[in-house]
Amino acid sequence: MNRKQKNLLLRILTAAIFFVPLYLISEGIVASRLPKWALLTLFLIPYLLVGYDILKKALLGIKNGKVFDEYFLMTVATAAAIVLGEYGEGVAVMLLYQVGELFQSCAVGKSRRNIAQLMDIRPDYANVERDGALVRVDPSEVETGSVIVVRPGEKIPLDGVVIEGNSGIDTAALTGESIPRQAEADSPVLSGTVNMTGLLRIRTTAEFEESTASKILDLVENAASRKSKSENFISKFARYYTPVVCCAALALAVLPPLFCAATGLGTEHYATAGALWGDWVLRACTFLVISCPCALVISIPLSFFAGLGGASSQGILIKGSNYLETLSQVKTVAFDKTGTVTKGNFAVKTVHKSPLPPEKLLEYAAHAESNSSHPIARSVRDAYGRETDGNRVTEMQEIGGHGVTAKIGGRAVAVGNEKLMQKLGIGHEGCFHAGTVLHVAIDGEYCGHIVIADQLKDTAKQAIAALRRAGVDKLVMLTGDAEAAAKQVAADVGITDYRAGLLPADKVACVEELLCGCGRRRKLAFVGDGINDAPVLSRADVGIAMGALGSDAAIEAADVVLMDDDPLKIAKAIRIARKCLRVVKENIGFALGVKLLCLLLAALGLANMWIAIAADVGVMILAVLNAIRCLFVKTL
Amino acid sequence: MKKSYKIDVDCANCANLMEDAAKKTAGVKDCIVSFMTLKMKVEFEEGADEGAVMQAVRANCKKVESDCEIYL
Q1: Which of A21, A232, A537, A588 is most buried, taking the most CB atoms under 10 A from its CB?
Q2: Looking at residues A520-534, what average pLDDT do you find?
Q3: Chosen domain end from A189, A222, A255
Q4: Is A186 designated active site?
């Protein structure tokens, strides 16, 4: 609790201590011979103590031309109740209203601090080496190319490359991923992550303004500027609602008694004309208390705020609550292949037609390719998994565009494409698999082939299934790759709809065509890795960029940024959005429902002030608690 | 010309109200209030006197939400 909240709590407690005995006296439960004026004066002590700021705000509102706000409602209702002699009710309403305010303020403050803490990636200082000594400086003063030292437990202040040291890096603040990443010499590291175990010396590669932490903070801070339709609806609603309610209350206070007085109907229930008026004015006050729109006005923006915060704690940055809304209506997802469902790097997929065990074939191929820097050679060596022994390899010869021949342990090994096999006159078999095929021959005998292809991401298949479960009914893969490769990947992840051989401009056309098939409540999301995707990302209803850490173009162009490259996060983002919008709808429905019911009861004279304030504060507390639920998305 | 100011406000909706009020102030081209980080980013119009504009922004914000504060 901050100072303001403590102050309010103290006022509420003091006022309550005054209020309880006075209330017992006024209800006749405790006998006393206090005259009425003395009781009123005594009641005014807790009333003013707990409610003076509300009265002040109501007056200020009138002065500033913003007459009909919730403070005005409360002031009029409680003052009228007191004037009518219902001292207890008047003071109780003010007291409970403030209890609600205090609760709301504490709950909101706490969730705000929670989110802010999660997003606390701003580094405070950087340790720079100057003349052999470490100097602590502001990160914005460090020039690109400087060497900084980051001790265990410190935040990495600037993007850079490790030049010395070995450590685990906690990237949770950026990616929501709790398993630390390993960093050693030559590993790139990002600002905003935390060095956990060892001392690192880092050469910076960006200035502070250009580093990841600054860019993400910018994104988070600017997210507030794009309001959702629901929020705009609520602020418009509040603008008309309160005046309308005030007029309705006025009508309720004046018209029925006038009608009764004029026609004589119903007057027999009241002893005097004063009692008749008093009853209806009191009903009008009850009506005013119930109609206070706080629950809606406070909980709707809070829901979106919590939703955005919860998402960013999972490494999903959403650039505004309007996108959260759009995301919740996504029914069609179009996605890029490379970098989205596949890793974008080559790896050995399988070994075919080999009379030798696959490991043995890989061993020969890896040794033959041991001096090549070609990505395909690297993937073969990675698949082999062990260090190659250079002493075993002799007479190595690289034939450009064909492959490699070498003697390994005395045996003649040829590794390469079809052309190499033809050139050497070795019969070979084709492959039905999509990808690059590497034929291997040993001592002139064909020994099978190695298929090298882009790898599916580990979670790609699960991600597609998760999207289907999340209610996405149309999944389309768009790729610039060849038909065969696209077909293979589509089959592997379990989708039927794909378009292959697309140029970047064709992708835009494809998305536009898909958009035509989408209705108003059926939104289209495009997921890409941000490379060559910018036009498509901005054309779709909502553009999602993956693995955006370190890719500026993606952060710029996308509406939703997934910090790491796990495709499961796409479905998670949609589920978070759905949950948030569901909470918003629940709150609107619940608050309006309860209020309308109580308003009706009040107009009929069936609800008193106690019910009114319980409806107001109770609905607000429940709505706020419900809104905070949007924060809890970890297990979603 | 953009500047960032620290603010203090209690609820997400009040932050929205402050943003609207600040946007309507003369000399302010655009304004973003982030409730999460409790910051107000103001983009001034060309040639505007920041100090004077921010005083007006603060006054306007106080009108819509008397509990708010902008630390200038």
Answers
A1: A537
A2: 82
A3: A222
A4: no
Say how far apart CA A135 and CA A584 lie, in whole Å. Answer: 50
79-138 in chain A: CB under 8 A from chain B: 104-105, 108-109, 112, 115-116, 119
Q: Is residue A494 part of a domain?
A: no
Number of domains into which chain A is organized: 2
pLDDT in tens, A92-128: 999 999 999 899 888 888 888 887 877 778 888 899 8
> Which residue of B lies nearest to A63 if distances are taken between CA atoms?
B63
Query: Contacts of residue A109 in chain B, CB cutoff 8 Å?
Result: 10
Residue A302 contacts B, CB cutoff 8 Å:
yes
DSSP A555-568: HHH-SEEESS--TH
Looking at the domain assignment, is residue A580 inside a domain? Answer: no
Q: Which residues of A touch B39 (CB under 8 A)?
A: 221
Q: Can you give the residue range of the structural domain that contains A438?
A: 344-456
CATH number of the domain within which A362 lies? 3.40.1110.10
Domain boundary among A405, A439, A456: A456
In a domain, A163, yes or no: yes
For an interface test with A, give the residue of B8, B17, B24, B35 to mutate (most A CBs within 10 A): B35
Segment A205-218, tens digit of pLDDT:
988 888 888 888 88
Helix (H, G, I), strand (E, B) or coil at A574: helix
User: B2-71: which CATH architecture?
Assistant: 2-Layer Sandwich (3.30)
Q: What is the DSSP letter of A155?
A: B
CATH number of the structural domain spanning residue A212: 2.70.150.10
Q: Domain boundaries in chain B? A: 2-71
Inspect the interface and report whether the beta carbons of A302 and B11 lie closer than 8 Å: yes
Whole-angstrom distance, CA of residue B72 vs CA of residue B66: 17
DSSP state of B45: P
Question: What are the pLDDT digits (tens) for A573-594?
Answer: 999 999 999 999 999 999 989 9
Rounded Cα gap, residues A248 and A420, in angstroms: 90
**Chain B residues inside the 8 Å CB shell of A57:** 66
Residue A178 has pLDDT above 80, yes or no: no
The pTM (predicted TM-score) of the whole model is 0.81
Interchain CB distance below 8 Å, A227 and B12: no
Determine which one of A170, A279, A336, A533 is catalytic.
A336
Judge whether residue A550 has pLDDT over 60: no
CA distance B49 to chain A (A): 24
Instruction: Return the number of other C-beta atoms located less than 10 Å from residue A114's C-beta.
Output: 16
Tell me if A110 is assigned to some domain. no
3-state secondary structure A124-176: CCEEEEECCEEEEECHHHCCCCCEEEECCCCECCCCEEEEECCEEEECHHHHC
Lowest-confidence segment of A5-9, A78-82, A267-271, B14-18 by average pLDDT: A267-271
